[in-house]
Design a protein that fits this description.
mainly alpha, rod-shaped, three-stranded antiparallel beta sheet
Length: 244
């Protein structure tokens, strides 16, 4: 009986030992996933944080390094053409005057008054030319005539015509009115006074009259009944009229 009791005690202890062994194994198994999870929990965030810590600042720095100079360069490139120097009132007036300057005004700056007043055209009777200009302008009366049309009619170049206009203005024969025509500044010439000409009395008999001393309005010899004057007037009327 005692022997059987000892056997049962041994078996109970053995079972208890097996249970303890099983408990140890279970504890080991329970601990393993916890360690892995802990390792993962520790490792992963660390890696991500490390990557973020390394990558993000690097990217931002790279972007800033690339972007800032580009922006500055772009701003400079845009800013430079926009810098337009503002002209002063005096400079604006000077620029306007230069844009509106005519050939006559350029000649007035280049030539002296003496050179303008003594202007001559080679092989041309200046008195006759002046009278022709006056005849043409007289037909236009106070309306005047654009100088370009006049030079074309007289077959003169603009250079010569401009010098002639300046001379006639100095003589007091014409006035010049500056006008804008066809987007160009030019002058309208208006007759001021007709110059004295000797052509009207050329070949007049009175200049060489043999009885001039005896001639008077109430005398026997008088311009009223002078045959010499009558013949001269008739001869002048028979002359062909020159085209103007």
């Amino acid at each position: 009986m005692a022997k059987k009791k000892d056997t049962l005690i041994e078996e109970a202890e053995k079972i208890k030992a097996d249970l303890d062994e099983l408990k140890k194994k279970k504890k080991i198994l329970d601990d393993k996933p916890a360690k892995k999870t802990a390792k993962k929990a520790e490792a992963k965030p660390a890696k991500k944080t490390a990557k973020k810590a390394e990558a993000k600042p690097a990217k931002k720095t790279a972007k800033k390094a690339e972007a800032k100079p580009a922006k500055k360069t772009a701003k400079k490139a845009e800013a430079k053409p926009e810098k337009v120097k503002k002209l002063t009132k005096k400079e604006l007036e000077e620029a306007k005057r230069e844009a509106e300057k005519t050939l006559e005004e350029e000649l007035e700056e280049q030539l002296s008054d003496e050179e303008i007043e003594n202007f001559q055209i080679e092989k041309v009777d200046m008195e006759r030319l002046t009278n022709k200009v006056c005849d043409i302008l007289a037909e236009k009366e106070s309306d005047g005539m654009f100088q370009g049309e006049l030079w074309k009619k007289l077959k003169l170049t603009n250079q010569i015509g401009s010098r002639l206009a300046l001379k006639l203005e100095r003589m007091g024969t014409i006035t010049r009115e500056k006008l804008l025509e066809n987007n160009r500044w030019t002058y309208k010439l208006i007759l001021k006074k007709t110059p004295i000409s000797t052509q009207s009395i050329e070949n007049a008999p009175c200049l060489v009259c043999p009885v001039e001393q005896k001639c008077s309005l109430e005398g026997e010899i008088s311009p009223r009944n002078c045959q010499f004057i009558e013949d001269w007037v008739l001869a002048e009327l028979k002359k062909p009229v020159k085209a103007k």
